[in-house]
Amino acid sequence: MTDSGMGMENHDDFTEGEGEGEGEGEGEGESEDGGDGDGGFHGEEPRGEEPHGDDDLPDGEFDREPDPSDSLRTWGAVCRALREHAGYTREEFADLIRFSKHTVASVELGRRMPDVAYVERSEGALGNTGALRNSSKYLTRGDVGLAAWFREWARLERTAMSLCTYECRLIPGLLQSEAYARAVFEGTVPVVLDSLLESYLERRMQRQRMLFERPITPFGFIVEEHVFRRRFGDDEQMRGMFDHVLELTAPRNVTLQIVPLDAGLHSCLDGPVRLLETPKGRWLAYSEGQQNGRLISDPKEVRLLRQRYDTLRSQALNAEDSRRLLERLRGEL
Fold first, then answer.
1. Count of beta carbons in the 10 Å neighbourhood of residue 301
2. In the prediction, which pLDDT does 15 show?
3. Which of 2, 69, 68, 9 is nearest to 31 (CA)?
4. CA angle 32, 36, 41 (to 5 degrees)
5. CA-to-CA distance for 183 and 201, rounded, in angstroms?
6. Cβ of 51: how many Cβ atoms within 10 Å?
7. Which has more pLDDT, 162 or 60?
8. In the predicted model, is pLDDT for residue 103 greater than 70?
9. Residue 160: how many CB atoms within 10 A of its CB?
10. CB-based burial of residue 29 (10 Å sphere; 0-12 exposed, 13-18 middle, 19+ buried)?
11. According to a count of CB atoms within 10 Å of the terminal CB, is the N or C end of the chain lower?
12. Which residues have a Cβ under 8 Å from the Cβ of 317 and sit 6 or more positions away?
């Protein structure tokens, strides 16, 4: 699913093809839309480098971060390098700093946020240079509820000059009502833990604020009519969903166009697509499928996707007629 970055500081300065075709197979949260890295895979334990030898970690023996960040992985890798340079095995180091070897392993693999005691004891055991203590101030938790493959796109969209979305599966994450988003999360497989569900919902609702906080940034949505006809919950929740979409698409910088059921076959039948323009005028695209997503930077491929999107935009209902259709569907409940 999707509503879905990878830690690039200068989002549109990466080299040609970087991030393209990666489709990181890490199921760590949601993608952007209920389909969106923000709707993607929500509750699986993060995967990464596995511990070695006797230090394999049994599931449940420590509290893992629901969504490890790049800073946690980096800090953990430095800790491991310093430990190995000092000549300690993981078990020896664990005894030295008075933590279990499983905790040491999970910190070194970026799966656990180290507490103050862990940082201070590790600092003292590994030379007391200040490197671990000082760098620990910059540790951050991951984007809870965002799939690994969606994080980079989520970060790019924060500074985008314009955003375009075509969706044929679910209401885009940026337009979902809370009840709709909850239904999406509750229907995922594997089941989302109750302890994470509220975090995912909060993350999705926070992302929607950009529609109002960036009043001069154009947001375009093209959504298939059948998406709005798909039932969830009761009539009150359905009406709430229509009201929410109508409210979010009312500002002049937000445009919703609906592809009617009788529109026939069209240029975007290959699936959902997202497009954005960076502050430097570069266009990028993002596509997502089952358990993966792909940031597309190749100019030729992006140009093709833009052509498909523009063609479909000419075939969809205009914004005014699209709002009338939503109001009619709401009135039929």
1. 15
2. 31
3. 2
4. 120
5. 10
6. 17
7. 162
8. yes
9. 23
10. buried
11. C
12. 257, 258, 259, 260, 325
Full-model pTM: 0.62
Whether 61 and 25 have beta carbons less than 8 Å apart is answered as no
Strand (E) or helix (H) holding 249: none
Q: Is the peptide bond before 190 cis (omega within 30 degrees of 0)?
A: yes
DSSP 8-state assignment for residue 37: E
Backbone angles phi, psi at 312, to 5 degrees: -65, -35
State pLDDT tens for residues 202-261: 888 988 999 999 999 999 999 999 999 999 999 999 999 999 999 999 999 999 999 999
For 156-193, the DSSP string reads HHTS-SEEEEEESSS--GGG--HHHHHHHHHT-SSPPP
For residue range 144-190, list pLDDT tens digits in order.
555 555 777 888 888 999 999 999 999 999 999 999 999 999 998 88
Characterize the bridge pairing of strands 37-41 and 162-167: unpaired
Task: Report which secondary-structure segment, H or E, holds 256.
Answer: strand 254-259
Contact 74, 6 (CB under 8 A): no
Which amino acid belongs to residue 200?
Y
Element (H, E) at 204: helix 194-208
CB atoms within 10 A of CB 47: 14
How many of the other CB atoms lie within 10 Å of CB of 216? 7
Contact 203, 146 (CB under 8 A): yes
**Which of 203, 277, 197 lies closest to 31 in space, CA to CA?**
203
CB-based burial of residue 20 (10 Å sphere; 0-12 exposed, 13-18 middle, 19+ buried)? middle
Which residues on adjacent β-strands are paired with residue 219?
163, 254
List the one residue out of 303, 306, 312, 310 whose CA is nearest residue 269: 312
H and E: helices and strands count for the chain: 13, 8
Spatial distance between the Cα atoms of 83 and 97, rounded to a whole number of angstroms: 11
In this structure, what token pair is assigned to residue 248? 């979010």
